[in-house]
């Protein structure tokens, strides 16, 4: 059960990152913009998820 939850956790962070990358693509940013926006949304999305679930950050 734990490995299933871990896989879903990683999948969620990957989807947040992909969302940031798609936004960067729509705004026609360069590779630095892709990296920054993807990382920012990945970390931010994971942090928001932890705060909603009341998990220590």
From TrEMBL:
Q: Which GO terms describe its cellular component?
A: plasma membrane
* Chief place where the protein resides: membrane
Residues in a coiled coil are: none
Keyword annotations: Cell membrane, Membrane, Transmembrane, Transmembrane helix
Q: Which domain of life is it from?
A: Bacteria
**Family in the record:** Belongs to the UPF0126 family.
- This protein is called what? UPF0126 family protein
Taxonomic source organism: Rhodobacter viridis
